[in-house]
Design goal:
Blueprint: H1 18-34, H2 41-48, H3 52-59, H4 62-86, H5 92-110, H6 116-123, H7 130-153, H8 156-159, H9 162-185, H10 191-206
Length: about 210
């Protein structure tokens, strides 16, 4: 199952010059490690070895740098998940569990501080901010993915009952997002493993 289709929004993007790419790479690391509000344009420019003028000439504003950071991270996650789902066993329930496995692997490699979207939403709660739509669309897309997977899991007759698929999808989404938060906070070890086990129990009740 491909996860590349049906994006909920298409944010404005910019063409990347080498200098802009260095700036975005530096900003992405700094935003994730220290927070969006805590990192100013001066620091991004210094870390990237470019001038503030170059930064503003290319991105126009710090807000656009945040959009590029979050959108780029989301694109990498979707590509990562695409690969995992393509290699997953064909059983529909295994596709669901693969999402949890992929999230655990992604978090171990790229997410020591938790979900970048959740972290960003803690700082950006104004719908007028251009990055706000990127954050909310990413989570809406995850729910859409779980809904699609839930319909695969359900028997043909049950799959036509949208409320059944919606309930299963929302339960899976809650387990997944809860694992993201617990992992980021370090509340207990292997939050994704526990969430995966709970997801399997939920899937068994529907099977």
């Amino acid at each position: 199952m491909s996860t590349s289709a049906n994006r909920n929004s298409v944010p404005r993007r910019i063409a990347m010059t080498p200098g802009a790419r260095r700036a975005l790479d530096a900003a992405s690391r700094l935003f994730y490690e220290h927070g969006i509000h805590a990192v100013g344009v001066d620091r991004i420019a210094a870390e990237a070895g470019v001038t503030k003028k170059t930064l503003y000439d290319r991105f126009g504003s710090k807000e656009q740098i945040v959009v590029e950071y979050l959108t780029g991270r989301d694109e990498r996650w979707r590509a990562f998940l695409d690969e995992r789902l393509a290699a997953a066993p064909p059983a529909p329930a295994e596709h669901v569990l693969t999402v949890f496995d992929a999230s655990r692997a992604w978090a171990e490699a790229n997410g020591a501080r938790g979900c970048s979207m959740i972290n960003a939403h803690a700082e950006i709660d104004d719908p007028r901010h251009p990055a706000y739509a990127v954050i909310t669309a990413q989570k809406a897309w995850m729910l859409e993915l779980f809904t699609s997977l839930a319909r695969e899991v359900l028997a043909p007759g049950e799959a036509t009952a949208s409320e059944t698929a919606d309930r299963l999808a929302r339960t899976l989404m809650l387990l997944h997002e809860g694992a993201l938060v617990a992992h980021g906070l370090g509340v207990f070890p292997d939050a994704f493993g526990l969430a995966r086990d709970q997801a399997r129990e939920v899937l068994d009740t529907y099977a």
